[in-house]
Write a structure and sequence with these properties.
Elements: H1 3-14, H2 32-47, E1 53-56, H3 62-69, E2 76-79, H4 83-95, E3 102-104, H5 109-112, E4 117-121, H6 126-139, E5 145-151, H7 157-164, E6 167-172, E7 179-187, E8 198-200, E9 209-211, H8 223-232, E10 246-247, E11 262-266, H9 272-280, E12 285-290, H10 293-306, E13 312-316, E14 328-333, E15 338-339, E16 342-343, H11 346-358, E17 359-370, H12 376-382, E18 384-391, E19 395-402
Length: 403
Amino acid sequence: MGAAEEFRFDDLFAGLSREPDFDAPELQAYDAADGLILETAADAVREAEPGTVVVVGDRHGALTLGAAGVLGAAGIRTHQDPLLGERALARNAERLGLAESYASLPLGPELLSGARVVLLQLPRGLDALDEIAWEIARWSDPSVRVFAGGRVKHMTLAMNHVFARAFARVSAGLGKRKSRVLTVSDPVPSPGAPPFPKWGNDAALPFRVAAFGATFGGPTLDHGSRLLLAGLIPSEDVGGGAGSVRVSPRPEPEGPAAAPRRIVDLGCGNGVLAVSAAIAFPEAAVIATDQSAAAVAATRLTAEAAGVPDRVAVHRADALEAVPDGWADLILLNPPFHTGATVHAGVAHRLIRACGRALAPGGELRIVFNSHLAYRPLVEQVVGETRQVARDRTFTVLSAIRG
């Protein structure tokens, strides 16, 4: 790679924006791994026929637009699990005049059939990588080469082992700019049964839980959601687990708090909260919303398994954009605390701020979070009068009523 071409990558990256994704001064729309992936794969991308280059896990467009704008790839197919990443790519592509260079597609055969070059930003979780590796091996051309990169601090040898279940060759390149690229080839002709969806059972739940590779929390009832449900739906089965736990039962005043009729699960993940609410409040309509394609797919399966698919409307959406103003009697929120691999409280702040618009007068926000994050002042400011419902060694559950 010549110095002139490397400068072109840097120039393109400098023009990228995270908009409309959550942004902060310390966050960028690209990282050094994007550049190293493109540098490592440059010859393969240039030689690829139109329609045979696929990008998976692009954060905000660096890989897709670098391959198109600098390396000349045409007919790129790309998959991003987060909706906001997909929208950021679209805005960046429009601004750079590259909107016609790619198509966004779901993970599966439409994305990967006939692929010969795959550029991959390594996901944070091994389950997500397992699903991606299986899909590439199952659908791509037998000659496919995968260039999978990430920041060294987030990479582990276990990633090589995951790839090795679906590919015969996995090699690691030299580290550069605190990043590294794995080059993977020779897909196993029959990589076995699809690893996802996975199903889980919990004694506290009267239904099975589904998850795909990128579904936050997997097919389980995570501890924060367990504690939130303990105060929302008092029972002997749903509790906060081991350790010191204080839980206040849900009050029974007149009005929406007594029997919510319109409920939102914001950031629904595997659907545990949405489905639990639909079962506990059989007269209620439930909206489950998440920006993750894997979360939306998992929630739909969890609702079907519980027998409530007609009462849980599932949307892939940014925050509460699928919920009308003043619609919700109750919003359930177990917010993420990271954006990509970066821990950042601003992601949760953004979701909390969205709740004020969507809550009906007298409506309730029920939120669980790691206690040290201290979200209560913001909840009180955005929603209204707030009380602590539950607390244990790690998590706090708050109830806030919109005035």
